Amino acid sequence: MNRVLVTGGAGTIGAAVVRRLLSDPDYEVRVSDQRPAPQWMREGCEVHTGDLRVLEEAKRATDGCSQVIHLAAIVGGIANFHKLPHTLTEVNNALYNAVIRAALDAEVERFVYVSSSMVFERAEIYPTPEEYLPDCPMPISAYGFSKLTGEVYCRAAHEEHGLPFTICRPFNAYGPGELPDAEPGIAHAVPDLIMKVLSGQRPLQIFGSGEQTRTLTHVEDIADGIVTALGSAAALNEDFNISASRELTVAQIARIVWEACGEDPASFELEHLPTFAVDVQRRWPSVEKAKRLLGWEARIGVEEGIASTVEWLRAQHRLAGEDAGGGRSRVGCGP
User: Fold this and answer.
1) Which of 24, 126, 174, 268 has its CA 20 to 30 A from that of 138?
2) Domains of the chain
């Protein structure tokens, strides 16, 4: 039996990873997060609550675990990258320092670092393959640089101390589990867009021209890719784009959201807001390496995935309304 530590396990991707691990009898799961774990997670896992930037807490979380999936980080949508550049750099680097040191001291069998598509924010080759990274222009955003730094930490710990690592880069995660924020751009695009449509915003506001492209990947597919890489000998000391393969413009994504919310396709209209200093214009990864070495590829189509996300968010709104009216209390936000 393998005991796996999932840092940041109460987050959207983290919760999906925990669910995927729990579906496999070969794994026991320990979650470490400062956020409250939902009831299903407390029933199925060990839960460590502590600040993983503190080495002693990181060691306590890692003790007895044979594998680590490191997801804990400051994340969010495009506005978050611009609002909290120093905070996310400071926090994420402190997490790398403590969690990787704890993993080395525990002599884990595999350290899976969940990076980000933002390491390729200035890519000029499409679809973008993993081997292009050394030649890709360095990220401008603090977030992209921070996630790239985590990859450097993994490789450095491997070169000096033999850390057995795997790097997974999710692309444009979406799905049940992430709530929108009152300020557009703080959460990711899909929950933001769904909230706008459900709240009656007309025309639908997006940042920029709408010609920017993204490759939306459902959290369940991302979780499956990460766990597949964790258990694969072929993934040892390798990096993978964990992504769907369908490139869509932001305007196309907005239309899919519009129709999934039940709105009339003929009344779809966009309003274009000024965008941010860093707004990646194209994001389209190569997924051939994961298919070739891991036998993995994404399965959930965008229309299907957005429809299920709309239904999940509708349910959250209903529960929030009941809670405000003195009814049932709101459930946790794990997918």
Assistant:
1) 174
2) 2-172+217-242 (3.40.50.720)
